[in-house]
Amino acid sequence: MILTIHDNNLQKVAFIDNNKQGTLNFYNDKWTRYLSKASSLFEFTVFKQTIQTDIVPYQTANALNDRSFVSFVYKGRTYLFNVMTIEETEHIITCTCKDLNLELTNEYTNPFKSDKARTFKEYCDVMGLLEFATLRIGVNEISDQKRTLGWEGQDTKLNRILSLANKFDAEVDFEVKLNANGTIKDFILNVYREHDDKHQGVGKVRSDIILKKGKNIRSIKRKIDKTDLIVNAIRPTAQGENGQEITIAGLGPWEVKNENGVVEFFQQGDMLYAPISMQKYPSTWTGSTGNRDKYTRKDITVDTKSKETLRTQAYKELMRSAYPSVTYEIDGYVDLEIGDTAKVYNGDFYPALLLEVRVSEQTISFTKPSTNKTVFDNVRALKSKLSSGIQERWQELFEASKPYLIKLATDNGVIFKNGIGQSIVTPTLYKGGRPITANVTWRWSLDGAVKTGMTYTVRGADVTDTSTLTVAAYIGNDEVAVDELTFVNVLDGRDGGVGPKGDPGQRGADGLPGRDGVGIRSTTVTYASSTNGTTAPTTGWTAAVPTVAPGNYLWTKTVWTYTDGNTETGYTVSRIGRDGNTGRDGIAGKDGVGIRSTTITYGKSTSGTIQPTSWTSQVPSVPNGQFLWTKTVWAYTDNTSETGYSVAKMGEIGPTGAKGDRGATGPQGLQGPAGPQGPRGIQGLQGPKGDQGIAGPKGADGRTQYTHIAYADNATGGGFSQTDQTKAYIGMYQDFTAINSTNPTSYRWSKWKGSDGAQGIPGPKGADGRTPYIHWAYSDSADGTGLTTSDNGQRYIGHYSDYTQADSTDKTKYRWADRWAKIEVGGRNILRNATFSNPKERSETFTVGGTTYKNIEIPNWGSMYNSGITNPTISYHAFYRESFNGTGPVIEFNESNGQRNWKALYQTLQASDLRVGKYTFSADIFTTGVGTKIRFGIYYYNKAGQQSFHSGLTTIDISTINKWHRVSGNLKLNDDIDFNREVRIYIYAYDFTTNSILYLTKPQLEEGTVATTFGEAQADVEKRIDAKADQAFTQEQLNLLNERAGIMQAELEAKASLDTVNNILKQIKDMKAADEATWAKVEKDLITHLQRVIKIETNLGDQAQRWNAVDTFMQVSNDGLSLGKADGSSSMLFSPDGRITMFSSGTPVMYVDKGVIHIDNGIFSKTVQIGRFREEQYHNNPDINVKRYVY
């Protein structure tokens, strides 16, 4: 299972994968799903560790925070969770997550009472349940139903959706789909009819699964309870509009029959009756007054105005009350989905119990499946339709499904001493408590060696420390059961000789007990179990390690007998914990031997193919473009070793470019050259297992050796697979054939995934018994100045180790490292209009050095004029400039005239954008000289009503001059802030030590301690997008207008009077006459124009003549007459062949040629005629067009 961590923008930032090395792992996970709430909770714990891809300690683990989201894929469906609570210690992070987005669970909807019947979707729309949650309705099985409903009081949107579904007798579930980058692609609300005999509701009918005791459930308990009153008759009433009583009297005949055709419910008068219930549970005390009195009656009141609804609600209440409640408790987990229904069979009841159940709640753990649990609801007893013979056959099949068990017996126990002796193991196979002997064969495996036989002899000489014997039972060629038995070989040490007496030594503070000057004759080790971890037990000591319950303590007592006859006793104690998570894959070791030690060293090189010659135990600083080499040396217990290398190239870091305004999309250009290599991305997901590995280097004999790997469920190769890595055993062998063998006996099997073992045999005494300690400290300075042992987010971390438990305050003892090196964090700019856009001139002015400056007002920023300057006529203010040195707009802080006056830029911040914590301010700076600086801080009211920089001011001295560069600094916002009052940020730049000028642009205020690339505030971006969207006239609006015009046109035509028609005909005739007269005049004018006497004639030949005005021109040549704007933005060409062409920036946009007009878009303000049909604007309403036939 892979967990994906998303940031607060749902971008993927990290992965948690228990099946992959080099990533974070999770455990103690619990996923609980609820049918009734249509939601689920997910809890899990992550062990905090620094993985290989982390640049600073815990970088990946810290991505899991209160702003994170978590997702995973289960059975092909994506589940997305919001991290709601985080509990963190020095070593672990525990998260509790809730699905559905926060708007559904946190946003409230108001009371509502409908004045008419509405559909489910109409209620969602009118109450705004889906408006702000990016939610849509998918499946809707009740789309044709309408009801008149109402709600009193406020409620969350999620609860209102669930209440609405309940009032429509429906069920809902939510489905989320994500894009490849982790953002939400679709969020769907599915609505189903409520589960009953005819409708499934949420989930599926799983007729392919039958739940049986002992197979997939542990037990079934049935409880019949009639503590609540049994009711056989109900009289329902309601209150009408005028307060009158409404009953069901007067409705037509009504009855409900059971599956046998017998009437189970019927109506008589204003009451409903349940006759079968009355016969089973009669009211015996009133039977003497007649049969009707045997009914137990109940009156109910229903909030409705409909008689049909009144009877429906009464029928539901009578069904619930007519019979005792029968509940079934089913213990076990079944791999079903929420809402699925399945059948349950238990032959231990008589008659056999056959139920239909539905999954209403489910708890799943991916790391500890043994804790999985399924809760069933809507339990319904089914009647068996099988004959007695078929039921007997069913029972036989049920017996056949019982599992096989192996019992093992030894003739000499399981413990050997000094490798002496042997023990014969004899197996017996059982099925359902009966021994099975026919056609049974056995396969044995001890430390990977596989044999067959009816018994197995284990020799002490073959057992080193501990060995596990695995036995598998086969009936024919089918493996039916597997069991294991562990053997132990205990070795006695030889007595050492008496050494010469040495000088008396000092007694060690923490050393193990010993006697000066004498040898140890013997050592006796015994063990005992206890619930106390501080006081050694007085009884129960044995030579064998006892079984200790999780949470209890294992005590080890060692008695040393010395050569001088004296003895000493020592105790050690360890607490037995619960089974841990499945461990990650270990580094590959040699076959048959263990790894004594692993040594990792690092080196840097300019080559990615030739190893460096110098290696260190610390990771060196590698320049960009060079290579970091890692060398790993494995030393094995057979005194051999192997060496492996890995190499990584450090990517080039390019400069951060200034963010420009978004331009129009241009035509696609040619493919450019490949850019420089980017920074290293986050680690990808685990890829699928390859079929055949890459062949290794050839050996001395010229042949290629291959290593073959397979997986199995046990040490004999049972459940053999070459791809399933989830199995508990791994098998390996080597040969010179590339094809993998499918014979399990070819592999040497070993267990590579299992639970923690028991306490091992104590090792030998250490050299001096001293305990090493590692010390950590933190500082804001690179040399450790002002160090503390508390991690408060300081930039630098230091460490050293010694044999003293107390932490040193000497900063020189620590090795210091920059925890923020090479970190790049995506931030959100809190400052509005950080680009200083849309400035406006004001009437105020000030004059310095004979130059008058106008006060410029910048939206969202405070006025800079006379900002505390006592004489505004001779001193500079902080003022706006459109640009400086290729960058702009900028704010200029000028002290070039020697006046050191107060200058500032400030903005009132939105309380919704702020919270208590750490912030970073950054800006682009250009200064003309040294000695300049900027100061900034948050100016607010504290809870005592005082206004000041309560969290302090930060100063940055500017050392880089005569070029644009970005600076940043940290500031805080303390928890004494009053968010209900005004909060400002001030940016000062004055009191320089030289007569210099400082320019500032692109300011950014963001949460966190790391400055990020400049970006506009989200509100500014959305505002600009909305402004552009408002200018667009959508096709949907056009379609609505066309539809409206068509309707109104039809109405107007139907109402047109004879006078109106005559008036329209007159207009058409007038227009036709004017059109014909115009054409005649044009023809006459052309003839007259050509017949006029030419006064000036110029023979241009292949040249052209041009007349230029201020910004227009007119030119004549053999190609025709052209006129237009001098800058080429627009022009027209009248060609001699009669073609008229219009150009925009040199591109043709319209032409008229031989009676044809070609144009992409056009607007006719009144009339257009095609053939004998004319479309024009209706004279009484400009919003309507009409078409008329013209003759």
UniProtKB/TrEMBL annotation:
It comes from the Bacteria. GO terms for biological process: extracellular matrix organization. Residues 664-683 have a biased composition (Low complexity). InterPro entries: Collagen (IPR008160), Collagen_superfamily (IPR050149). GO terms for molecular function: extracellular matrix structural constituent conferring tensile strength. One of its GO terms (cellular component) is extracellular matrix. Keywords: Receptor. Residues 495-518, 653-701 are annotated as: Disordered. This is Putative antireceptor. It comes from Streptococcus suis.
